[in-house]
UniProtKB/TrEMBL annotation:
Binds 1 FAD per subunit. This is Pyruvate/2-oxoglutarate dehydrogenase complex, dihydrolipoamide dehydrogenase (E3) component. Pfam families: Pyr_redox_2, Pyr_redox_dim. Residues 5-319 form the FAD/NAD(P)-binding domain. Disulfide bonds join 43-48.
Length: 474
């Protein structure tokens, strides 16, 4: 059966759903093809939503253990991981209602659960249906990247796609990867009661972040009981009596880590296999689909967005990219993606949020920058809450923010004041002049900027000027 559509969308994650729903409600004939049998994508089922729900349970466990610091006597028994994962499932199911296929069908979208592949540049085969699209969007997302370590497959391992199905808390967990996913889950399991070891090949955790802040985060993770080992490669895995033994190397040193289970969090790989992209003439480079600023592939009427493009693997970015696709496909407006101000957050405790350039990146690009820092230990609300670890670091050039990093409580919420300032190109003096409610964590923005003016304000010259004013003006 061959049918013609204004838009064929491959992938039922955030990018595909946003694009299909808008196009359908605006009267386009839209087909949405999803392979897994359910809508919502990785973010809902195996990524953002379940991980943040698990992290919240881990925070409660940590608070119970630390309750004595707050003058409250509480005791925590062994954590019931099955009950924790039941709550994770409840949250997913609640949000899943918004991604009900019938909702999208009510928008006029033909939702098809089948494997999609290209027959040619205009035709997508989905099961026994042939879909001819005037425009086509590829939004298939990504999957966990699994390193080729001898014995790993035989030993068995978890990824973010399987970890939320577990029912028993492991006594010992080895996490391969010190990126955002690995660190978030490592700390969560440590707070729930597991003995956790993180094995990261790079010289430091989170290599894209500011090293000043990642060094402090690493200290906090260690304080939570996470054994962080950087510059460490897993060379082989063996299983003996049901136990995994990870043989590791760090320079000339070798070590063996024993664990009940292994969690692989070694990055993501775009889902391009099985699409038969060569039949459509779509270029694939290094396993991803390159696109231009209008989200067009090498075939102009075929667009792609999200993780499959390998740009920024964040849900908020694919939602933004979907808006670019909608402008081009639905309204025929030549809108281009602008990644100048893209925030991201690692949801450890404390959280690490970032936007724009780091200090090192700014200096490498030739900017003579000023650095404004302020620690949460000097913010009254942080003291009241007992969450004083971390700092705000702003990278400033000619009075405007080039980038900022926040390590601290609720950093993922606090970063957005700086995102807006960068987006609107607001000078930092306006942050200093804005009245911030007391006591709030957000005061850290004003306090950080004020450090830039302190030397000038209390300089000998300013003191002389004030003296003249007092003598001359009655």
């Amino acid at each position: 059966m061959t049918e013609t559509f204004d838009l064929v969308v491959i992938g039922g994650g955030v990018g595909g759903l946003v694009t299909a729903s808008v196009a359908g409600q605006l009267g386009l004939r839209v087909a949405l093809v999803e392979k897994s049998g359910k809508l919502g994508g990785d973010c809902l089922h195996t990524g953002c939503v379940p991980s943040k729900t698990l992290i919240r349970s881990a925070e409660i466990a940590w608070a119970a253990r630390e309750s004595g610091r707050f003058g409250v006597a509480a005791e925590l028994g062994r954590v019931d991981l099955a009950a924790v994962m039941d709550r994770v499932r409840e949250v997913i199911d609640t949000i899943q209602v918004h991604d009900d296929p019938e909702r999208f069908r009510s928008y006029g979208v033909d939702v098809i659960f089948a494997h999609a592949r290209f027959a040619d540049a205009q035709t997508v085969v989905a099961g026994d249906r042939r879909l001819i699209g005037r425009r086509i969007l590829i939004a298939t997302g990504s999957r966990p990247a699994v390193p080729l370590v001898p014995g790993l497959a035989e030993a068995g391992y978890w990824t973010n796609e399987t970890v939320f199905d577990q029912r028993e808390l492991p006594d010992r967990l080895a996490v391969m990867g010190g990126g955002p996913i690995g660190l978030e889950l490592a700390q969560a399991f440590a707070r729930l009661g597991s003995q956790v070891t993180v094995l990261e090949m790079a010289e430091r955790i989170l290599p894209r972040e500011d090293p000043e802040l990642t060094a402090e985060l690493e200290r906090q993770l260690r304080a939570d009981g996470v054994d962080v080992r950087t510059a460490t490669a897993v060379e082989a895995v063996e299983t003996r009596d049901g136990m995994r033994r990870l043989h590791c190397r760090s320079g000339d040193e070798v070590a063996t880590i024993e664990a009940d289970h292994i969690l692989v969090a070694a990055g993501r790989a775009p889902k391009v296999d099985g699409l038969d992209l060569e039949r459509a003439g779509v270029t694939v480079e290094e396993g991803r689909i390159p696109v231009d600023a209008r989200m067009r592939t090498s075939v102009r009427h075929i667009h792609a967005c999200g993780d499959v493009c390998g740009t920024y693997p964040f849900t908020h970015v694919v939602e933004y990219q979907a808006g670019v696709v909608i402008a081009n496909v639905v309204f025929r407006l030549p809108k281009k993606a602008d990644y100048r101000v893209i925030p991201w957050v690692t949801y450890t405790a404390p959280e690490l949020a970032h936007v724009g350039l780091t200090e090192a990146a700014a200096r490498e690009q030739g900017y003579a920058v000023q650095i404004a820092r302020f620690r949460f230990g000097d913010v009254d609300r942080a003291l009241a809450e007992g969450s004083t670890a971390g700092l705000l670091k702003m990278v400033i050039y000619r009075g405007r923010i080039l980038g900022a990093s926040i390590l601290g409580p609720h950093a993922g919420e606090l970063i957005h004041e700086l995102v807006l300032a960068m987006q609107a190109r607001i000078k930092v003096k306006h942050l200093s002049g804005a009245v911030h409610a007391y006591p709030t964590l957000a005061q850290i923005h004003r306090r950080a900027v004020n450090t830039l003016y302190a030397d000038r304000l209390y300089s000998p010259m300013t003191r002389r000027v004030v003296g003249w004013i007092q003598r001359l003006v009655p």
